[in-house]
Amino acid sequence: MNSRTAGRPYLPRHSDATLSAQLKAMGAVLIEGVKGCGKTATARQLASSETLLDTDPNAARRAELDPRLLLDGAVPRLLDEWQRAPQLWDAVRREVDDRGAPGQFILTGSATPDDTVTRHSGAGRFGLVRMRTMTLAEKQAITPKVSVTDLIAGSAPAPANSPVSFRDYLHHIAVGGWPLLVGADEDAARTFLDGYLSIIVEHDVDEVSGTTRNPRLVRRFLQAYAQVVSQPATLASIVKRARDDHDSEGPSRYTAEPYLDALSRMMIVDEIPAWDPSVRSSKRLVTKPKRHLGDPSLAAALLQMSPARMLDDLETAGFLFESLVAHDLRVYAEAAGASCMHYRETDGRLEVDYILETRDGDWVGVEVKLGESETDKAAASLHRLTERVTRKPKALVIVTGTSLAYTRDDGVHVVPLGVLGP
Fold first, then answer.
1. Is the pTM above the cut of 0.85?
2. What range(s) does the DUF4143 domain occupy (predicted)?
3. Alpha helices (H) in 272-412, listed in sequence order
4. ω before 76 within 30° of 0 (cis)?
5. Which residue intervals of the chain bear CATH 3.40.50.300?
6. What is the fold, at CATH topology level, of the domain defined by 3-130?
C-alpha cells in the first residue's frame, strides 16, 4: 500500500484494474468522477509522484507561467484536479508525444471544463476511467455471489441467500458510497452530506459555471431533481416542481439549463440514457434520460429521507432503492465492458428499468423491485420486451431487496442486490 494512504486502509476499487491496464497502453489516463468518490486515493496506488492543484496554490501559479513546470517527476505522475489549470491538458498531450512511452501521467478531475476551454483531442494519448462512489461490494458490505459479467455472458446464477435486510438497504441509501463514510452511522452521514451539498450549491456551481448563481434556486432545482430520481422526467417537469406558487423567483427553464449543465459537468447529476434497440414493431421510444444523482445518498439528503422516513414512505423508498441498484449496476456493467441504459415506450405500455448492453450488441434486461410481490409483473415486462427486440437477451433479471436468489420457471433470474457483484 502507498504510504500516503496508510492512515486509512485502502479498499480495492473496480477501477484499479482498469487504471492499471490503461497505464500500460496509454501515455496518460484521465480519471473522472464526482468529488469525494475516491479518485485521488485510487490514483495514488499507482502514482510515483504528484501535484495537487486544489490544495497547492503554487501549483496553479506555476501552471499559469508554464504548465510544463508541473510535469517533471517520477512516473506515473499524478496531476490531481487538473481542470483547475486547463492548459495542462495540451501540455500533457505534447509531453506524451515527446516521450513516446506509456504510463507517464494520471490526471484526475471532479469537473469537466466548459466548452469555452479550447483543447486538442487526447485520442491515442489519453485513456479514460470513469469512477463513481463505492458499490456495496467495494464497501465490503456484501459478499457477491452472482456476477454481472456472468449474466452478460449468459450463465445462470446458482441459488444464493442474501444476509442484507430491508433496513440495511435503507441505511446504505442514507449513507451512500462515499469512501470517507465507510462504516459511518447515519448521523455522521447526514452531517457530511449537508456540508457537501452546501459547498456544491454555494461555491462549486459558481466556480464551474464561471459566473454567480443564486444558491437558493440551485438548491431548489436540486431538490426538485431528487424528487424525480429513477424517472425519465423532462427538464420542464423538474422546473415546474422547483417553482412555488408563492415564489415568483423560482428557477425558470432559462436559468435551470445552466444549473443542469454545471451539475452534469461536476458529475453530481449522473443520468442514464435511453436504449434504442432494433425492434420488430414501429414503437416510438422515450429518448429522455433517466434522472439519477452521483450517489443515492444525495437524493435521500435533498429529500430529507432518513431510513425512518423511508419506512413511512415506501413509494419514495422504492425510487431510492432503484437508484442504489442503478448505481451499482453501472459500475459492475462497465467493469464487464457493457453500458447501462433504460427502455420506455412513449405510450407508456412498456417500460424496463435497465438494459445492460455490450459493444457486440449482447444485452440483459433488468427490472428493479423492492419486494417480492411485483416480481410476476416485472417478469412479464421483461418477456414482452424480448418479443419486441430482434436480438434475444443473454439474461432477464429482477434485482430485489429480498433475501433469496433463484431462477423462476420462466427463466427470469431473481437476484437480491445483496448478492450482486461484478
1. yes
2. 203-370
3. 296-302, 307-312, 314-335, 375-388
4. yes
5. 3-130
6. Rossmann fold (3.40.50)
